[in-house]
Design a protein that fits this description.
Elements lengths: L1 E7 L5 E8 L16 E6 L8 E10 L2 E5 L9 E9 L10 E13 L3 E14 L1
């Protein structure tokens, strides 16, 4: 990112630096992967019916995922999340797909979509 910066030295003299390159540091603790996984999101609410939303991950890590969507859910919404992972490319595995089920909640939304943080408990099941 290129920005203009004004520097102040110890004698309060101002100097300007044009096209200064700003270095940003990654705050995430876990490695994030650009991976598109089909996902079923179920809003866990107090009613008996659970609303289902079908989306595809934009990127994912062990702690959460980001979904591009024009209709993000509001932060704080709790979800049951099912990822469908195709296994047909792996040899010597009888199951062709598996489902990873995890709980999570929406932690952030923006114009591109929503970020979901996963709970530490999960289930891996044949699909």
């Amino acid at each position: 990112m290129l920005i203009d910066v004004v520097l102040v030295d110890s004698q309060n003299n101002l100097s300007s630096v044009k096209d200064f390159t700003m270095v940003t540091f990654e705050r995430r603790e876990m490695e994030r992967f650009s991976l598109e996984l089909p996902t079923s999101l179920f809003v866990t609410s107090q009613s008996e019916k659970s609303e289902s939303i079908e989306l595809v991950t934009s990127n994912i890590c062990a702690g959460g995922a980001f979904y591009n969507t024009e209709k993000p859910l509001p932060p704080g919404i709790e979800l049951r999340i099912n990822f469908i992972v195709p296994l047909d490319k792996l040899k010597n595995i009888e199951v062709k797909r598996l489902r990873i089920e995890v709980l999570g909640s929406v932690i952030r939304t923006d114009q591109q979509g929503m970020a979901i943080c996963f709970d530490e408990k999960y289930k891996i099941l044949p699909y």
